[in-house]
Specification:
This protein has one helix and 20 strands. With 281 residues, the protein is mainly β. It has two domains: 138 residues, Lipocalin (Beta Barrel), CATH 2.40.128; 122 residues, no CATH class. It has a ten-stranded antiparallel sheet. The longest helix is centred in the N-terminal third of the chain and has 4 residues.
Protein backbone atom coordinates (compact mmCIF):
# COMPACT_ATOMS: atom_id res chain seq x y z
CA UNK A 1 0.00 0.00 0.00
CA UNK A 2 0.26 4.25 -1.16
CA UNK A 3 0.92 -1.80 0.13
CA UNK A 4 4.23 -0.90 -0.87
CA UNK A 5 4.67 1.70 1.69
CA UNK A 6 6.90 2.92 -1.11
CA UNK A 7 3.81 3.02 -3.32
CA UNK A 8 1.24 4.41 -1.08
CA UNK A 9 2.64 6.77 1.50
CA UNK A 10 1.37 9.35 -0.36
CA UNK A 11 1.83 6.06 -0.41
CA UNK A 12 3.47 6.36 -0.56
CA UNK A 13 3.34 5.17 2.86
CA UNK A 14 0.69 2.35 2.39
CA UNK A 15 -2.60 2.67 4.34
CA UNK A 16 -5.05 -0.16 3.82
CA UNK A 17 -8.55 -1.11 5.00
CA UNK A 18 -10.66 -3.75 3.33
CA UNK A 19 -14.12 -5.35 3.44
CA UNK A 20 -16.02 -8.38 2.29
CA UNK A 21 -15.47 -12.13 1.97
CA UNK A 22 -13.03 -14.26 0.03
CA UNK A 23 -13.28 -15.12 -3.65
CA UNK A 24 -12.96 -18.44 -5.42
CA UNK A 25 -9.93 -20.67 -4.98
CA UNK A 26 -7.13 -20.26 -7.54
CA UNK A 27 -5.53 -23.26 -9.14
CA UNK A 28 -1.90 -24.12 -8.39
CA UNK A 29 0.49 -23.01 -11.14
CA UNK A 30 3.72 -24.63 -12.27
CA UNK A 31 5.54 -22.79 -9.49
CA UNK A 32 3.80 -24.93 -6.87
CA UNK A 33 2.34 -21.80 -5.30
CA UNK A 34 -1.40 -21.23 -5.13
CA UNK A 35 -2.76 -17.73 -4.60
CA UNK A 36 -5.28 -19.34 -2.25
CA UNK A 37 -2.56 -19.44 0.40
CA UNK A 38 -2.47 -15.63 0.51
CA UNK A 39 -6.23 -15.04 0.51
CA UNK A 40 -7.63 -13.23 3.52
CA UNK A 41 -7.69 -9.94 5.39
CA UNK A 42 -4.28 -8.97 6.73
CA UNK A 43 -3.75 -6.41 9.53
CA UNK A 44 -0.37 -4.78 10.00
CA UNK A 45 1.53 -5.07 13.29
CA UNK A 46 2.97 -1.56 13.22
CA UNK A 47 5.36 -2.33 16.08
CA UNK A 48 7.31 -4.63 13.75
CA UNK A 49 7.81 -2.18 10.91
CA UNK A 50 11.34 -1.47 9.69
CA UNK A 51 11.06 1.88 7.95
CA UNK A 52 13.52 2.40 5.12
CA UNK A 53 13.87 5.34 2.77
CA UNK A 54 11.99 3.33 0.15
CA UNK A 55 8.87 4.29 2.09
CA UNK A 56 8.99 7.58 0.25
CA UNK A 57 10.27 11.13 0.33
CA UNK A 58 8.40 14.39 -0.06
CA UNK A 59 9.74 16.54 -2.90
CA UNK A 60 8.73 20.16 -3.50
CA UNK A 61 10.41 22.50 -5.99
CA UNK A 62 10.02 25.65 -8.05
CA UNK A 63 8.25 25.01 -11.37
CA UNK A 64 9.94 25.95 -14.63
CA UNK A 65 7.09 28.28 -15.56
CA UNK A 66 6.87 29.87 -12.12
CA UNK A 67 5.17 28.86 -8.90
CA UNK A 68 5.70 25.57 -7.05
CA UNK A 69 5.12 21.92 -7.83
CA UNK A 70 5.22 18.62 -5.93
CA UNK A 71 6.87 15.53 -7.39
CA UNK A 72 4.45 12.71 -6.61
CA UNK A 73 4.68 8.98 -7.11
CA UNK A 74 7.83 6.91 -7.70
CA UNK A 75 11.16 8.73 -7.90
CA UNK A 76 12.17 6.82 -11.03
CA UNK A 77 9.10 8.15 -12.88
CA UNK A 78 7.54 11.01 -10.87
CA UNK A 79 4.52 13.11 -11.69
CA UNK A 80 5.13 16.87 -11.42
CA UNK A 81 1.92 18.25 -9.96
CA UNK A 82 1.39 22.05 -9.85
CA UNK A 83 0.63 23.66 -6.49
CA UNK A 84 -1.87 26.48 -7.03
CA UNK A 85 -2.85 28.45 -3.94
CA UNK A 86 -6.07 29.72 -5.46
CA UNK A 87 -8.44 28.70 -2.67
CA UNK A 88 -10.52 26.31 -4.77
CA UNK A 89 -10.14 22.89 -6.46
CA UNK A 90 -8.49 22.71 -9.88
CA UNK A 91 -8.03 19.94 -12.47
CA UNK A 92 -4.93 17.72 -12.45
CA UNK A 93 -3.36 14.88 -14.43
CA UNK A 94 -5.98 15.05 -17.18
CA UNK A 95 -8.27 13.02 -14.92
CA UNK A 96 -11.55 13.42 -13.08
CA UNK A 97 -9.54 14.23 -9.95
CA UNK A 98 -9.16 17.76 -8.66
CA UNK A 99 -6.94 19.11 -5.89
CA UNK A 100 -7.03 22.15 -3.65
CA UNK A 101 -3.97 23.70 -2.02
CA UNK A 102 -4.09 26.34 0.73
CA UNK A 103 -1.24 28.13 2.48
CA UNK A 104 -1.90 29.49 5.97
CA UNK A 105 1.62 30.86 6.46
CA UNK A 106 5.22 29.89 5.65
CA UNK A 107 4.99 26.81 7.90
CA UNK A 108 1.45 25.50 7.37
CA UNK A 109 -0.04 24.02 4.18
CA UNK A 110 -3.23 22.09 3.38
CA UNK A 111 -4.16 19.93 0.40
CA UNK A 112 -7.35 18.08 -0.51
CA UNK A 113 -7.94 15.54 -3.29
CA UNK A 114 -11.40 15.08 -4.79
CA UNK A 115 -12.56 12.25 -7.07
CA UNK A 116 -15.73 12.96 -9.04
CA UNK A 117 -16.30 15.82 -6.61
CA UNK A 118 -16.04 13.61 -3.50
CA UNK A 119 -13.30 14.22 -0.94
CA UNK A 120 -10.79 11.35 -0.91
CA UNK A 121 -7.91 12.71 1.19
CA UNK A 122 -7.16 15.77 3.30
CA UNK A 123 -3.52 16.51 4.10
CA UNK A 124 -2.11 18.96 6.65
CA UNK A 125 1.58 19.90 6.60
CA UNK A 126 3.40 21.69 9.42
CA UNK A 127 7.07 22.67 9.31
CA UNK A 128 8.96 23.10 12.57
CA UNK A 129 10.13 26.56 13.63
CA UNK A 130 13.77 25.68 12.83
CA UNK A 131 12.80 24.42 9.36
CA UNK A 132 14.35 20.98 9.87
CA UNK A 133 11.27 18.80 10.46
CA UNK A 134 7.96 18.38 8.64
CA UNK A 135 4.89 16.68 10.11
CA UNK A 136 2.22 15.45 7.70
CA UNK A 137 -1.24 14.31 8.82
CA UNK A 138 -3.34 12.69 6.10
CA UNK A 139 -6.97 11.70 6.53
CA UNK A 140 -8.33 9.39 3.84
CA UNK A 141 -12.06 8.96 3.26
CA UNK A 142 -12.30 6.57 0.28
CA UNK A 143 -15.73 5.87 -1.17
CA UNK A 144 -17.05 2.71 0.46
CA UNK A 145 -13.92 2.35 2.59
CA UNK A 146 -12.83 2.97 6.16
CA UNK A 147 -11.56 6.40 7.20
CA UNK A 148 -7.89 6.38 8.23
CA UNK A 149 -5.48 8.93 9.68
CA UNK A 150 -1.76 8.68 8.97
CA UNK A 151 0.79 10.81 10.81
CA UNK A 152 4.27 10.90 9.28
CA UNK A 153 7.35 12.85 10.36
CA UNK A 154 10.00 13.86 7.83
CA UNK A 155 13.47 15.38 8.11
CA UNK A 156 14.83 17.91 5.63
CA UNK A 157 17.64 16.56 3.44
CA UNK A 158 17.87 19.44 0.95
CA UNK A 159 16.54 22.94 0.44
CA UNK A 160 15.87 25.41 3.20
CA UNK A 161 16.94 26.39 5.71
CA UNK A 162 13.31 27.50 5.96
CA UNK A 163 10.14 26.92 3.97
CA UNK A 164 8.57 23.96 2.18
CA UNK A 165 10.77 23.66 -0.91
CA UNK A 166 13.30 20.83 -0.82
CA UNK A 167 13.44 17.08 -0.18
CA UNK A 168 12.15 15.52 3.04
CA UNK A 169 13.05 11.97 4.15
CA UNK A 170 10.57 9.98 6.23
CA UNK A 171 11.58 9.17 9.80
CA UNK A 172 8.38 7.76 11.35
CA UNK A 173 4.82 6.88 10.38
CA UNK A 174 1.72 5.73 12.24
CA UNK A 175 -1.76 4.95 10.91
CA UNK A 176 -5.02 4.65 12.85
CA UNK A 177 -6.73 2.28 12.64
CA UNK A 178 -3.90 -0.12 11.83
CA UNK A 179 -3.34 -0.63 8.09
CA UNK A 180 -4.85 -3.75 6.58
CA UNK A 181 -5.21 -5.28 3.16
CA UNK A 182 -7.46 -7.84 1.56
CA UNK A 183 -6.20 -10.46 -0.88
CA UNK A 184 -8.60 -12.65 -2.86
CA UNK A 185 -7.74 -15.59 -5.10
CA UNK A 186 -8.67 -14.72 -8.68
CA UNK A 187 -8.44 -16.35 -12.08
CA UNK A 188 -6.48 -19.51 -12.88
CA UNK A 189 -3.44 -18.59 -10.76
CA UNK A 190 -3.70 -15.04 -9.45
CA UNK A 191 -5.09 -12.70 -6.83
CA UNK A 192 -6.88 -9.41 -6.31
CA UNK A 193 -5.47 -6.91 -3.83
CA UNK A 194 -7.38 -3.86 -2.57
CA UNK A 195 -6.80 -1.23 0.10
CA UNK A 196 -8.42 1.64 1.97
CA UNK A 197 -7.01 4.31 -0.31
CA UNK A 198 -9.04 2.69 -3.08
CA UNK A 199 -6.02 1.05 -4.79
CA UNK A 200 -7.09 -2.15 -6.59
CA UNK A 201 -5.47 -4.58 -8.99
CA UNK A 202 -6.01 -8.16 -10.15
CA UNK A 203 -2.88 -9.95 -11.35
CA UNK A 204 -1.82 -13.44 -12.41
CA UNK A 205 1.46 -15.06 -11.41
CA UNK A 206 2.74 -14.85 -14.97
CA UNK A 207 4.93 -11.74 -14.89
CA UNK A 208 2.55 -9.77 -17.10
CA UNK A 209 1.88 -6.19 -15.91
CA UNK A 210 -1.64 -4.99 -15.19
CA UNK A 211 -2.97 -1.53 -14.40
CA UNK A 212 -3.45 -0.35 -10.82
CA UNK A 213 -6.71 1.54 -10.39
CA UNK A 214 -8.07 3.85 -7.73
CA UNK A 215 -9.16 7.45 -7.22
CA UNK A 216 -5.74 8.64 -5.97
CA UNK A 217 -3.46 6.28 -7.94
CA UNK A 218 -0.78 8.01 -10.03
CA UNK A 219 -1.64 7.64 -13.73
CA UNK A 220 0.32 4.93 -15.54
CA UNK A 221 0.94 2.77 -12.45
CA UNK A 222 1.36 -0.93 -13.29
CA UNK A 223 2.23 -4.10 -11.37
CA UNK A 224 3.32 -7.61 -12.39
CA UNK A 225 3.66 -10.70 -10.18
CA UNK A 226 5.47 -14.03 -10.19
CA UNK A 227 5.97 -16.89 -7.74
CA UNK A 228 9.47 -17.09 -6.24
CA UNK A 229 8.78 -20.36 -4.38
CA UNK A 230 5.82 -22.07 -2.71
CA UNK A 231 5.40 -19.32 -0.11
CA UNK A 232 6.76 -16.13 -1.75
CA UNK A 233 5.37 -13.74 -4.37
CA UNK A 234 7.44 -11.00 -6.00
CA UNK A 235 5.73 -7.93 -7.46
CA UNK A 236 7.41 -5.57 -9.91
CA UNK A 237 6.10 -2.02 -10.21
CA UNK A 238 6.44 0.40 -13.09
CA UNK A 239 4.99 3.67 -14.26
CA UNK A 240 4.51 4.24 -17.97
CA UNK A 241 7.08 1.54 -18.74
CA UNK A 242 9.75 2.71 -16.27
CA UNK A 243 10.57 0.23 -13.47
CA UNK A 244 9.88 1.89 -10.11
CA UNK A 245 10.21 -0.80 -7.42
CA UNK A 246 9.89 -4.38 -6.23
CA UNK A 247 7.87 -5.92 -3.40
CA UNK A 248 8.07 -9.44 -1.97
CA UNK A 249 5.28 -11.01 0.08
CA UNK A 250 6.51 -13.96 2.14
CA UNK A 251 4.01 -16.22 3.90
CA UNK A 252 4.95 -17.94 7.15
CA UNK A 253 4.88 -21.74 7.45
CA UNK A 254 1.64 -21.60 9.41
CA UNK A 255 0.03 -19.20 6.95
CA UNK A 256 -0.84 -16.63 9.63
CA UNK A 257 1.94 -14.06 9.09
CA UNK A 258 2.74 -12.14 5.90
CA UNK A 259 6.02 -10.23 5.67
CA UNK A 260 6.13 -7.55 2.97
CA UNK A 261 9.47 -6.11 1.86
CA UNK A 262 9.40 -3.12 -0.49
CA UNK A 263 12.33 -1.55 -2.33
CA UNK A 264 12.01 1.56 -4.48
CA UNK A 265 14.09 2.11 -7.61
CA UNK A 266 15.69 5.55 -7.35
CA UNK A 267 17.84 7.51 -9.79
CA UNK A 268 20.78 7.46 -7.36
CA UNK A 269 20.62 3.66 -7.14
CA UNK A 270 20.24 3.76 -3.36
CA UNK A 271 17.20 2.49 -1.50
CA UNK A 272 16.83 0.94 1.93
CA UNK A 273 14.00 -1.62 2.09
CA UNK A 274 10.87 -1.04 4.11
CA UNK A 275 9.59 -4.15 5.90
CA UNK A 276 6.03 -4.50 7.20
CA UNK A 277 4.52 -7.48 8.98
CA UNK A 278 0.84 -8.46 8.73
CA UNK A 279 -1.22 -10.93 10.76
CA UNK A 280 -4.21 -12.76 9.32
CA UNK A 281 -7.45 -11.55 10.82
Amino acid sequence: MQPTRSRNLSVRVVTLALVGGLAAVAQTGSSGLSAKKFAGVWVEDQSKMKLGDSAGRLRFREAAGGGWEELRGPEAAPLAQPMKFVGKPYAIDGSVNTIEWRKTDARHFHRKIYHDGKLQAARDIEISADGKTLTEVTQRTPTGGQKTTTTAVFERTSGGPQGLLGVWAIRSVKTAPAPSMRIEAAGPDGYKLSDAAGRIYTVQLDGKPVAVSGPTVIAGSMVAARAVDDHTIEESDDRSGTPTGKTTMALSAGGKTLTVTSVAIRPDGKSEPTITVYQKR
